Sequence to fold (86 residues):
Amino acid sequence: MSFPFEKQPGEKHENTSQPLNDLTDWGRVEAMDDEDIVFDEDNPEIQPGELQRGVVRLSGITPTPEQLEEAKRQLLTYINRPRKAK
Fold:
């Protein structure tokens, strides 16, 4: 017995799924400052102890110490970038 959704022997597979539409307003997200982020029960703030067991990956691999230092430098450059005046 087979089920209707199973691929039958000799049957070609068709991808019937459609890509999801991205409904994010990226212009609004890019314009937000840290002060604009709302923390609530659906979006709680990350507590300092929650990141202690995190694993760092860059492009899916564990970075070398030099790559990690470069990523930190780039992150600090981004965090301290000049902001647009409101």
Observations:
- Residues 65-79 form the longest helix (15 residues).
- The helical segments are 26-31, 65-79.
